[in-house]
Amino acid sequence: MINAVIIEDETAAYRHLKNIIESSYSSKISIIANEASVKNGIKLIRDVQPQLIFLDIELQDGNGFEILDYFSKTSTFEVIFTTGLRDYKEKAMDYFAFYYLNKPILKEQLITVLDKYLEKQTAFNTEKYAAFKNQVENKHTKISLPTKNGDFNIIDIEDILYCEADGSYTHFYTKNNKTYTTSNNLKKVERILQHTSFFRIHRSTLLNLKHIIQFNNNGEIKLTNNKKLLVSSRNKSNFLRILKLMNYSI
After folding, report:
1. In a domain, 50, yes or no
2. How far is CA 65 from CA 94, 236, 243, in A?
3. Same domain, yes or no: 14 and 124
4. Is there a single domain that holds both residue 127 and residue 141?
5. How far apart are CA 201 and CA 208, in angstroms?
6. Pick from 41, 17, 42, 43: which is nearest to 31 by CA?
7. Per the domain annotation, does 147 fall within a domain?
8. pLDDT digits (tens, 9 = 90+) for 38-91
9. Which residue, 12, 44, 160, 241, is the most exposed by fewest CB within 10 angstroms?
């Protein structure tokens, strides 16, 4: 069950949204609370820690972006904007919103958005959970990296710190301070390593979780070679879920 909250200052809009969700997703999404202001919305999120927030932009004492700014370094939730304002979609995307819906909310459109959201959650839960839970039983110990000139480098997967995209190429950085470049793009590398301890922390960075020695709330990761990397805001919530899933025994 996905725990969700609605932060909306229009009673009719709140009831309309809540009715659609409860009638169509009663077994999947639970609206556990609602608030109508920035101040109370922040307190609500701190108290109940929802996985999903339906957020209006214009609130009683400010705007919804102030709430997201407050949680900018600790966010573990997805946001669906529900607003009558049509000029903030680009800004909403800058905040990595899952979606931006204009009022009046149409039932068919909301269902389409929520189906996509649930599909994303299911994909993460089944694929990532299985991959990371079983990583200790992983039978793949080496990987062959095709180079630009057609040769191959064979390296131990355990030695890879992280992989970084460079157009259609990928750079592999290892614990012995060597760098290897392969002619495969990062998407293909991620697919090859999907059943190992690697996780996409950024659109251009694939990290070996076994080399993390510290993670800060500002999204900064410190590796065993003292290299520091940043987890993107979009990937932070799933990254935190992975850490909790693995009980920090990565």
Report:
1. yes
2. 11, 18, 27
3. yes
4. no
5. 10
6. 17
7. yes
8. 999 999 999 998 989 999 999 999 999 999 888 877 777 889 999 888 777 777
9. 12
Q: Are residues 14 and 126 in the same domain?
A: yes
207, 230 in Cβ contact below 8 A? no
CATH number at residue 173: 2.40.50.1020
Q: Which domain holds residue 152?
A: 135-245
Provide the number of structural domains found in the chain.
2
**Same domain membership, residue 165 and residue 111:** no
Q: Nearest-CA neighbor of 226 among 210, 211, 244?
A: 211
In degrees rounded to 5, what are phi and psi of residue 202? -160, 160
The residue among 64, 54, 62 whose CA lies nearest residue 98 is 54
Q: Please tell me whether the overall predicted TM-score, pTM, comes out greater than 0.70 for this model.
A: no
